[in-house]
Amino acid sequence: MTADINTTFTAQRHTQISQAAARQADIDARIAAGTLVPLGGDRYRINDPQSFDHNETLTYTAGQLLPQHGLDLSLGQAALYTSTPAWHSLGNVIPGGTSDVAQVLTLGGIGFDVIRRPAEYRRTVDGGHHMVPGYFITVRTDTEAPLGVVGSKYHVLQNADIFGFLQDLADTGDIVWESAGALRDGRTVFVCMRLPDTLTIDAAGISDTIIPFIMATNTHDGSRQAEVVTTPWRPVCANTERFALRDAYTRWGVRHTRNARSRIEEARRTLGLTRTYYQQFAAEQETLARTRMAITEFHDLIEDLWPATTGSKRETTSRQRRKDVLTGLFAANTGTLGNTCYAAERAITEYCDWHKTVRPTGSLRGKHLAARATLAVEGGNDTIKTKAHKALLTLTRR
Question: I want to staple 215 with a disulfide (CB 3.0 to 4.6 A). Which of 168, 192, 244, 369 is the partner?
Fold first, then answer.
């Protein structure tokens, strides 16, 4: 039987139009319900406290509402290498990862160097250019884009140096580079490597696999020091997380000074990069997974983590909203982990990473998802996670 190409073409067009109409109808319905707020210029804000995307700004592109990923696009494509596809389907993926540093630098869009140039200004009275003593501008060598203003003691830690530092830090040949990329137009870069050992939390048969990672972040705008964190990552979960068991053992920072690369032993000692560290981590998580926790105890923990301050109506409403979200997250985690302290920690971690309100500032203004991702990388919520972990361990000894 011969197919009519005109009929096939018409059917395809009808399907495309129908799909577009359905997407538009969904947008209209969300606007009417108040969960989607038009901002103008094809931009919308999510107004749904129960959603992962609450307060996120979406852009209407190619017939779809898409979130902002925050990745550097200076070279015309997203600066990201990863071993697994990301939620936004951007970047360069090598399934299973690679150990080739040069390949990761290229695919991650971070193969550029950064140099310092003297800071200058133009005086309005005569139009002449004048130096600013003691200050420099950091500049990308590939795009010539200025990244920040730094002082005379600031030394650039090149992107390639981060890989060497992490390799020396791990002191093992079994390194697989998990991800690497750039945010904020290249002002922030990150590199994550996967260590060969894995941990399994198997209390009560939950069989929760955790893979140890080491992640380094660096800025080229002088806004903060370079940092390295140990990251037990739970791959079956949508959000990458960091359990800050002990601040001194999970995070190490170094200022941009001449001897930054030489402080390997200090970093290794501070981060606790030993088999004992991960064994203790697994033991603590197993203990949490075996400890029952009632919903009333979970609510008491919430009160301790976020105590009331003013007693105002606005604060009371905000606290109740947070309690409702956390209660829902706890219920969802107990479905697979039981009514345990481990489920409570998972709920609090998920809330901190994806539900806690983020107010972007500076170059991240208006980019809520990018700001949230930056906080996750830079550890903006570690204090709450650490406090929760210690409080939950206390409950295991009652």
Answer: 192
